[in-house]
């Protein structure tokens, strides 16, 4: 089993996910109350964005704390590759 690590960003990510969880419950209630599809779609979009932001924050945190530590001390080529990898993850 791999060792798990809690990073400083994890509490913020948990807050984001709990907020998304609350919005998701609201969406279910909206659907059960036969609210308009437009309203439901807007709320689904908000949940999707919130979960995506949480995922992006987790991936970036992993790169910053776990991958950098794993290759440390890094060669110049490895450092450039890691920097490029960080840059491309902006498009997740």
The largest pleated sheet is described as: none
Helix content: over 70%
- How many angstroms does the end-to-end distance come to? 28 Å
Q: What is the 3D form?
A: elongated
Mean pLDDT: 85
Describe this structure in words.
The chain has about 90 residues and is mainly alpha-helical. The protein has 3 helices and no strands. The protein is elongated and about 60 Å long. It starts with 9 loop residues before the first helix and ends with a helix.
Tags for this model:
single chain; 92 residues; mainly alpha; 3 helices; 76% helix
Compact summary:
With 92 residues, the protein is mainly α.
Outline the fold blueprint:
Layout: H1 10-32, H2 37-70, H3 76-88
């Amino acid at each position: 089993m791999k060792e798990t690590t809690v990073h400083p960003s994890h509490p913020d990510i948990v807050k984001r996910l709990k907020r998304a969880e609350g919005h998701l419950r609201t969406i279910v209630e909206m659907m059960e109350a036969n609210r308009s599809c437009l309203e439901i779609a807007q709320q689904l979009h908000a949940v999707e964005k919130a979960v995506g932001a949480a995922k992006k924050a987790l991936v970036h945190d992993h790169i910053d704390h776990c991958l950098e530590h794993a290759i440390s001390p890094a060669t110049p080529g490895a450092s450039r590759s890691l920097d490029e990898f960080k840059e491309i993850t902006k498009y997740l």
